[in-house]
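hey
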């Protein structure tokens, strides 16, 4: 299998298992799970961070009212699922919880070991 295809399939498996882990979480409210799932759509693998587009863009794009978005983000920060990382020019990014990513990696590796050989 060509390496680019292997990376693409590996990334797809990791994203699927990550979304499954978030969806199965009993500690998060429905809105917190929704916001966290959408946050990972902005995950930048090269920088290992979530490039957050801002409240207005994020809320509009994902049909989340501003007050509910703000409450969910604060709750996710307090619970340690994401950590804000201020950037220059008033932009914001989030650092994802490494344990959440590790769990997704382990689930994907157990489900599809052939993608992680080598």
């Amino acid at each position: 299998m060509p390496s680019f295809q292997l990376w693409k399939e590996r990334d797809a498996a990791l994203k699927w298992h990550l979304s499954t882990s978030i969806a199965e979480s009993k500690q998060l409210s429905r809105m917190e799970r929704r916001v966290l799932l959408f946050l990972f759509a902005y995950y930048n693998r090269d920088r290992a961070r979530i490039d957050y587009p801002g409240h207005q863009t994020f809320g509009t794009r994902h049909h989340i009212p501003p007050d509910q978005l703000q409450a969910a983000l604060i709750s996710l920060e307090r619970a340690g699922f994401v950590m804000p990382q201020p950037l220059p020019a008033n932009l914001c990014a989030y650092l994802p919880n490494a344990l959440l990513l590790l769990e997704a990696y382990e689930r994907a590796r157990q489900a599809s070991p052939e993608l992680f050989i080598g």
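The chain has a mean pLDDT of 88. Residues 3-116 form a domain with the Arc Repressor Mutant, subunit A fold (CATH 1.10.10.10).
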